[in-house]
Amino acid sequence: MLHRYNTGSVVPVSDGAAYFDGDDSQITSSLPGSTFDGDFSTAFWVKRLAIGGTDVLLHIKDGTSDNVYVAFTSDNKVKLQLMDTYTETPAESEFSNVGIWNHIVCVQNDVENTQQIYLNGVDVATDATSARDVDVDVDATNFTLGSNVDKTTDEFEGYMCNVGVWSRALT
Hints:
The protein is mainly beta and 171 residues long. It is built from no helices and 13 strands.
């Protein structure tokens, strides 16, 4: 299998996980522009090494104000957030599992009008009022794992592997 992504300063470790040092390490890639237009799902295996500020796992931003991101917050939550010009719509849940592997799945379902976060297979957050079409046009310069798209803030410290992105709501 040939991967076409730029790992930058991120060093994949022998078991297949990528290590993010929390300071200037991220992976950039590209997806079709329609991936986050409507239903979508993301999944990660992550091992967060420290609690500090906000640690972004995935950030997608188009040329306007539209954003999709999955992050750990400084107040120990995991958050799926969709933003357009003025509106933020988070689904979030408590997260205190530092130093151990966790499986996180985030789902937006336009038909059900929900956002959900699953932590280790358990539905830990459902927001029934926030799901909507954000229409983020993704290209190679604005899909980032491990930090904000600008690569200067909210950098993840830990390990990440088996990242998946689907243009449908997984059930």
